Each structure stands twice: as structure tokens, then as C-alpha cells.
Amino acid sequence: MKLIKVKNYEELSKKASAFIVETVNQKPNAVIGMATGSTAEGTYEYLVKAFQNDEVSFTEAHSVNLDEYVGLSPENDQSYHAYMDHHLFKHIDMPAENHFIPDGEANDLQDECVRYESRIEELGGVDLQLLGLGHNGHIGFNEPGTSFQSKTQVVDLAESTRKANARFFEVMEEVPDQAITMGIATILKSKRILLLVSGKGKAEILNKLLESEQTESIPATALKEHHDVTIIADADALSLFE
Ligand code: F6R
């Protein structure tokens, strides 16, 4: 894993956006794996600026999102469909039919997982997968204990993850307790992976990730077996790492 140390969140976001711009400029029909959450917001902000400055166009590109909550409709403000529209899709020229996000309202969720996994394969796989890091080491919504062989699946969210994400909801009871997420094996099939880690709150888990061997109790350690992983981390996130 290659580690890029940056000063702060601003620099992290700029660098991550530049990675995506470069990927799409080299391969206009690239498939970009998108993450949601607070960490990715700045990256999308810079990506929108790059599009507005004519530095990149997404007309041939595709996006596949890591995950979606079970039971939230795309119209629900807290759904990842709404997040992506708000932060990225409505500002850029990627055709709507090129956006793929799991359907958390599917009648048959297992079937949706199989469909999503094959959709990624039909697209030729993910060229660059963006990831954030959960406080418990999750990637996507693959919580500690998830098999490294897992494919797209329905998962129960850890109570700590529900609490961490409660800030986006009015009351804790509204936070879904399940999600559909790309599995760890799905993520590892991506050609390149970019993991973003920002802030003091992530310092402990980032330190564990960098220092420990592969273990299913820290899902992100699965990334250690991938040949092209770049971590961009800011000074706060790296504050416990020597
Ligand atoms: C989001 C996702 C999660 C987040 C992680 C970090 O699609 O899959 O793994 O990337 O929970 O979230 P933030 O950036 O909000 O700290």
C-alpha cells in the first residue's frame, strides 16, 4: 500500500479528485467506484470544479457505488442515491443511465446483490475504487468479521456504525440497520483503489490498519493483498503513526 501524506482535508480532497480526473482523462469510459460519507464530500466538490473548468468530462464514464441502505428510497434525503445526486451527479455530465447504486428497496434483496455483482462485471470491472475508512475498520459496509471472500451482500450494520451515521438523521431510530454493500472480494477486484482517511477521529484505526497483519477483525487490512492501493491521509489521521 502506498501512503501519501497530506497536510489537511483540503489537500486530501484535491489530490483524490486529481486521481479521478487523471483516470477518466486516460480512459474516458472508465468505471469509477464511488464512496459516500463525509470524507468523500470534498473530493466531489473538487471534481465538480474540475468539470466546470473543462478539465474533465464524464459523458462516457460509469460509476458504481459501494453501498446503499436497505429500505431507503432514492428520494429519501439520507439515501446514498440522494447523496450522490446532491454532491456529484446533478453537477456533472455523466449520463444518468451510467450511474449504478444498489437498490435498497428491491423486493428481493439477494437477487439485487447478484444483479449488482454481475452489473459490475458486465461493465468490465472497476478501474478506480474510492474508499473511506470506518472507525471500526470497515470498507463499504463490510463490518469487522466479514469474510475477505465476500461478494455484494446484505449486511447488518454494527451499532457503532449506526451511531456514527446518526448525525445525518433526525433521530437514531431512523438510521437503517441493514445495507447492501459490495463485498470485500468485490472491492479487491478493482484495478486500483484509493482510500481516503482524514481527521483525528480516524487516527487510531488508521494506525491499526498500517501496523497490523491482515485480519478479518479489521476489514480494511484486506487491502494489503491488492497490488495497487494508495492511501491518502492527512496529518490529523496520521497523528498516531510514526
Ligand atoms: C460509504 C462507505 C463507508 C464510509 C466510511 C467512512 O459509502 O461505504 O465505508 O466510507 O464509513 O465514512 P465517513 O467518511 O463519513 O467517515
From TrEMBL:
Pfam families: Glucosamine_iso (PF01182). Residues 11-230 form the Glucosamine/galactosamine-6-phosphate isomerase domain. The active site is at 67 (proton acceptor), 136 (for ring-opening step), 138 (proton acceptor), 143 (for ring-opening step). SUPFAM superfamilies: NagB/RpiA/CoA transferase-like. GO terms for molecular function: glucosamine-6-phosphate deaminase activity. PROSITE patterns: GLC_GALNAC_ISOMERASE (PS01161). It catalyses: alpha-D-glucosamine 6-phosphate + H2O = beta-D-fructose 6-phosphate + NH4(+). Its EC number is 3.5.99.6. It is an enzyme of class 3 (hydrolase). Pathway: Amino-sugar metabolism; N-acetylneuraminate degradation; D-fructose 6-phosphate from N-acetylneuraminate: step 5/5. InterPro entries: Glc/Gal-6P_isomerase, Glucosamine6P_isomerase, Glucosamine6P_isomerase_CS, NagB/RpiA_transferase-like. The keyword Hydrolase applies. Keywords: Carbohydrate metabolism, Hydrolase. Catalyzes the reversible isomerization-deamination of glucosamine 6-phosphate (GlcN6P) to form fructose 6-phosphate (Fru6P) and ammonium ion. Belongs to the glucosamine/galactosamine-6-phosphate isomerase family. NagB subfamily. PANTHER family: GLUCOSAMINE-6-PHOSPHATE ISOMERASE (PTHR11280:SF5). This is Glucosamine-6-phosphate deaminase. The lineage of its organism: Bacteria, Bacillati, Bacillota, Bacilli, Bacillales.
